[in-house]
From TrEMBL:
Keywords noted in UniProt: Glycosyltransferase, Plasmid, Transferase
GO terms, molecular function: glycosyltransferase activity
Protein family: Belongs to the glycosyltransferase 2 family.
SUPFAM superfamilies given in the database record: Nucleotide-diphospho-sugar transferases (SSF53448)
Keyword DNA damage annotated: no
Protein name as annotated: Family 2 glycosyl transferase
Domain Glycosyltransferase 2-like, chain residue ranges per copy: 7-170
Pfam family, one: Glycos_transf_2
Native species: Novosphingobium resinovorum
Database matches in InterPro entries: Glyco_trans_2-like, Glycosyltransf_2, Nucleotide-diphossugar_trans
Length: 333
């Protein structure tokens, strides 16, 4: 078989609700020279049957149906399985604009110094309704992206990314320790070996809904993000990155030992605690305990009384009282 120009990499786990629209948006691309790798990562719903049905209709689809191994393992498996030199990421709940692949592969052809290109995105809801966006769009140029790294800003929307396979393989692919923020860690590592940017067009419709990973695993995602940023600063300073060979990140209290100097645990705890104040799911799980620990450790208190009121709105009156007591105690102290 001739080598395709692009390998599309998509993993699905119990995603049949949105899977058909995601697959069809890929098959409808104006640029059609691609293979479509889809891993069914141990789904218990009808996802695998749906993949087989679509594969029977379009020979470009290469389904991989197996037991659950997690997204990072699935992504690395598809990178190794891909036959094309260019990989286009896609998620099973998003929708591509028909000209997405054509616009991105043309960019990489015209910019050989860029290893990764993403795009802006349009937010949609559960029923594909358009949502009002808030905040800045992703940076366009590599220089702007480096500036965003410095301030902890957005870099590249993962399901909108297209990258050169060999460049990603050269840095070891996705790292298992950074589950739920594996893309950020990859972009940070790639930023020192290639150029990264975004096309300022909304080539992907990005679905936001309560059941998505960023909602269900907000605390773990924020912890991984903070540690990935610490690891990036270590590499930039010429120090070894102790996270590179880890399968899982240690508890926050062990980060000083991992990085070999004091202050890292407190720094990560504060960043995570302050980053989760508006997340209802995080304030209902261990994110709340992190926040209380941060305050008892003498951390920043600005805006915390508003968080008490927010907890009431989240339907967590007991935690609201606990936070109020913590604030009162720390003020008295």
């Amino acid at each position: 078989m001739p080598t395709p120009a692009i390998s599309v990499a998509m993993s699905v786990f119990n995603g049949e609700r949105f899977l058909a629209s995601a697959i069809e948006s890929v098959l409808a691309q104006d640029f059609s020279d691609f293979e479509f790798l889809i891993v069914d990562d141990g789904s218990s719903d009808g996802s695998a049957a749906m993949l087989r049905e679509y594969a029977g209709k379009d020979s470009r689809i290469r389904p991989i149906v197996r037991e659950n191994r997690g997204l990072v393992a699935s992504l690395n498996e598809m990178i190794e399985t891909a036959r094309a030199p260019i990989i286009a990421r896609m998620d099973a709940d998003d929708i591509c604009r028909p000209d997405r692949f054509g616009r991105q592969i043309a960019f990489l052809a015209n910019h050989p110094d860029y290893g990764v290109v993403g795009s802006w995105s349009e937010d949609i809801g559960e029923d594909s309704e358009k949502l009002v966006r808030s905040g800045a769009d992703h940076p366009e140029t590599h220089e702007e992206l480096l500036g965003a790294i410095e301030v902890g800003g957005q870099l590249i929307c993962h399901p909108a990314a297209m990258y050169r396979r060999d460049v990603v393989r050269s840095v070891g692919g996705y790292h298992a320790a950074f589950r739920h923020c594996e893309d950020l860690d990859l972009w940070l590592r790639l930023s020192s070996v290639t150029r990264l940017g975004n096309i300022p067009e909304r080539l992907l419709r990005y679905r936001r809904y309560p059941g998505q990973v960023s909602s269900r695993h907000a605390t773990e995602q924020q912890i991984g993000t903070a540690v990935a940023q610490v690891a990036w600063r270590e590499r930039r300073a010429g120090r070894p990155d102790p996270t590179a060979a880890l399968d899982r990140l240690p508890p926050i209290d062990e980060l000083d030992s991992l990085f070999g100097r004091p202050g890292i645990s407190r720094q990560v705890r504060e960043q995570v605690a302050l980053g989760l104040l508006y997340s209802a799911s995080a304030m209902r799980d261990e994110g709340f305990d992190l926040l209380v620990s941060h305050l008892r450790d003498g951390g920043r208190r600005d805006g915390m009384w508003r968080t008490v009121a927010r907890l009431v709105r989240f339907g967590e009156p007991v935690r609201a009282l606990r936070l109020a007591a913590t604030l009162t105690t720390s003020t008295s102290a």
